[in-house]
What we know:
With 190 residues, this protein is α/β, with parallel strands linked by helices. 30% of the residues lie in helices and 9% in strands. It is found in: Cytoplasm, Cytoskeleton.
Amino acid sequence: EKFAKAAVQLVHLNLTGCQIGGQGLRLILKALVDGESTENLLRLDLQNNNISLASDSFSYIGHFTNLRALDVSRNCFTLDTSAQAKIFRAGLAPLTSLQILSVAHNKIMDKGCKFVCDIVREHYPALRILDFAGCFLSKGCLPVFEELLEHVKSEEPEVDPSRRPSLDEEEYSYIPELVIELESTTNPEL
């Protein structure tokens, strides 16, 4: 409780490699929620732990609505059941300001890839980096990525063609593209 009260100004929480499981994640995030430390958290690094979608602990992430970057790479995620998909959606759906999402090196596979891309299309207009490196994907995901990129392209703001964009102008500070990272994939077919 003391930690949660002191964490009100917490902007970045890095729990990389702490071997946290579902119970540990639930305790940490619940303490932050109970201590009203959800407003300022912009980045949450949970990579290289033992977090799975077998329990509802992941849904606590949804309380951090201002989160801009979430890294859950190298955990125990699979998205091959509707129950896991429901927990994943409950955790991510409220995070409409998310700009970076890494699910790299989890056993997401094609079915999970489609599910993640559908969530991105529905909820994340600000997302700019989506990392699927090492997620056991096949060529079957290419149409899913193409569809997602087309959707992002169709959501780009109108720009007056008579003006050349200047990097200093606030009007052009919006980056109208999504980068999908696939390097280091463990499936040689992709």
